[in-house]
Structure prediction request, 379 residues.
Amino acid sequence: MQFFNVVLPSESPLNQIAAGLGPNDLPYSLPIHPNLVHLTIGLFVIAIAFDFAGAFYPLEKRIFRFLALPVTRPGLHDVGWYNLLACAVISFFTVTAGFYEMLTAVPLAGVKSTFGLESFVTMTWHGVGGVLILLVIVLMTIWRGYQRFVWRKDMGRQVQWPYLFAGVVMMGVLGLHGTLGAQLAAEFGVHITADQLLAAGADLKEALP
Amino acid sequence: MGLLMLEHLLPPLNDHNLPWMDTIHPIVVHFVIAMALISVLFDFIGVVTGRRALFEVSWWNLLFATSAIFVAIMFGQVEAGLANPYGDARNILNIHSTIGWSLAGVLSVLTGWRYVLRAKDPLSLPLAFLGADSLLAALVVVQVFLGDKLIWIYGLHTVKVVEAMRAGLV
Prediction:
């Protein structure tokens, strides 16, 4: 039993700024969010990886000695802490840029992703999920700070096992989340000049010489 | 016979013109871009603020960036070979490949130099290294800019462009 159908105005709010947008639906030629993503993911993954290295230091000691590579346990954990701290700061900008570029996104019509999802669902997961991931990164940074400066200040292994476990789970989440983002680009053509030109019926031989 | 084996070395190409689900090179470069840039940043912060513990963080990030770039180049070469660049993307891909290999050299030399510096005194960093850091950061930024153009302007390996390519439209 359906009483009302949703009524959508034909004009997208994007039309209000259309005059200032290029063929990639952005006021500039290259999107910013995917570049900041390099930093968010790289810093997070390496932070967790080095805390693993610090946690298993007693096992690796001999390997480092064999390689003649001087190493200290606090040094490994320093990477775990500072990289995560940098990740937390930078990720606010990653999400901010992502939000703006999501607002101006015009996914190609009639496309279903490799996951079998349409563009709106993909963008919803990627957008809402992105904010939640930022929240987790910030919470994990606070957690990591407490371990470093309070709870495990005088201990060789600076991190708790549940922290490392959370880190591994988050790497999986980031991988899945990043795949959705990659699909928005490579499958839905969001903010890709060539894809948008092709969708508009342009001849790339002339439009993109 | 040898050719036949080579043909079956990789799975068949999908709608991204790739033998795997999606481009891998842009994922591996997370660990070159982020680690190289953060290494440079921590060096500068370390020198300016006197937080010398950061030099150790820089060193490990630099070492990781250097290891990662060779993996990035391996996937980059395979995916570039399957990219079918058109128009100006051909030149951009050439320059991107050249800078990519050069960056592997620059990163390796910097890592070797840093290994020696760190072995001598892990708590000091000569000003010359900050100069080299600046060159590294500049090269990374240019390289990212060129890679960005290949995907965000020319859409290499995107479904829409691959479709047009197979239809002979580009």
Notes: The helical segments of chain A are 33-55, 57-66, 73-103, 119-151, 161-186, 193-199, 204-207. Chain A touches chain B through 47 residues (CB under 8 Å). Residues 33-200 of chain A form one domain. Chain A has a mean pLDDT of 94.
